[in-house]
Amino acid sequence: MQKRTKTIVAVAALAAVVLIGVVAATKGRSKAVEVKIESVGTRDLVASVTASGQVASHTKVDVASDVSGRITRLAVKEGDMVKKGQFLLEIDPSQYQAAVGRNVAAVASSRAQVEQAKATLAQAQSTYQRTADLQKRNPKLVSADQVDQLMTAVKVNQALVDNATHGVAQAEAALRDAQSSLDKTTIVSPIDGQVTRLNVEQGETAIQGTLNKDAATLLTVSDMGNLETKVKVNETDVAHVKVGDSAVVQIDAFPDTTFRGKVTEISNSSLTAATTTNTSTQADQAVDYYVTVQLLNPPAQTRPDFSATAKIITDTRPHALAIPIIALTIRENGPVSNGGDSAAAVGKTAVKEVGKKDADGVFVVGADNKVTFRPVKVGIAGEQYFEVLSGLKPGEKIVSGTYQAIRDLKDGTVVRAAKPAKKGDSTKSS
Length: 430
Hints:
The chain is an alpha+beta fold. The protein has 4 domains: 33-45 and 319-417, conserved putative lor/sdh protein from methanococcus maripaludis s2 fold (Beta Barrel); 50-57 and 222-271 and 283-315, Beta Barrel (Elongation Factor Tu (Ef-tu), domain 3); 64-91 and 186-221, CATH 2.40.50.100; 93-184. It is built from 8 helices and 22 strands. It has helices spanning 2-31, 94-137, 144-183, 213-216, 235-238, 279-284, 343-346, 403-408, and strands spanning 33-39, 41-57, 60-64, 69-74, 81-82, 87-91, 186-188, 193-198, 205-206, 217-222, 227-234, 246-251, 258-266, 288-295, 307-324, 329-335, 356-365, 371-375, 377-381, 385-390, 397-401, 415-417. The longest helix is centred in the N-terminal third of the chain and has 44 residues, at 94-137. The chain starts with a helix and ends in a 13-residue tail after the last strand. Mean pLDDT is 84; it is low at 3-12, 15-29, 336-354 and 426-430.
């Protein structure tokens, strides 16, 4: 009986030891933080800037009239293809034809006055010459005063000839102006292209373009063989964009197709927002710049003002050492000195710490599953990965998620790899 009791006690003690071990192991596992772990490797990285805008023709001309009048003929409709010099429309020429007629008559009249003035001048010159010769031969017959009077008459008639000649020049200039106005009643296409906008109908009145440019625009002709999109790029991204950068353009009208593009121009001045008297409001407003992207292979169905999105390729890194963007975090990374010599340099006590500096880095997983924060210098950013310039080696394991887990990690934290999600599991990590 005593022996049996001892056996029971021994079994109970053993069970207790096992239970304690299991509890301890479970407690140890519960302390480990579940994270995503990834090995550092190489990837092809592409840095890009995405911006939106509208399709437009590189060359377009807003056709306006230099004369006013009723449109009597309209030979095109919106969408028509036209050639340079092709007739587009006519403004009622009747009043301008009448003006030309009046000025033709004025020119003829002025020329007749010149001829009359010249004839009178010739007669005055002849009279003066005869009288002057007679006075020389016989001073008693003709006085010097008579000769002087005749000379004055010659000068007066010469002035009349000059004035009549100026009158002809003025009349001819007026005729040229009238003819020019008449010519402007016929409007032709300034370029080869397509009528992309027609603002008038036959019978409407065209106003002179110098009075109001927008209201005076009759139609727009665009060269559809050279299309581009102007996209708005914010100030933080525009510094990375260069003329010549390639781009991938998606036009909303063709959602399943992308088109090649090339950056041809970057505006020097920003797009100024609406003026406000609130200085703080102005400071908070984003500053954008226009970047022009030429479309290299647009479809024939493309129209001006189509909405478009351009993905501008600013840099590429083939086979670059890379880490997930989510893996990069910020931690305090040692003291910032007061600017004196270090203890190592002078062999004395370290200088007084005046603060901490932040560093970008990742948490490296050690062989014991403990993490250590390590500063990392990164380069370009792809869609999901950063280029690593220094701080890591290929094959090293780092914590790559989740965001919440990385945010709470500290040096020495024990981690364990999260189990991969099963197929059909819709749960997503933050």
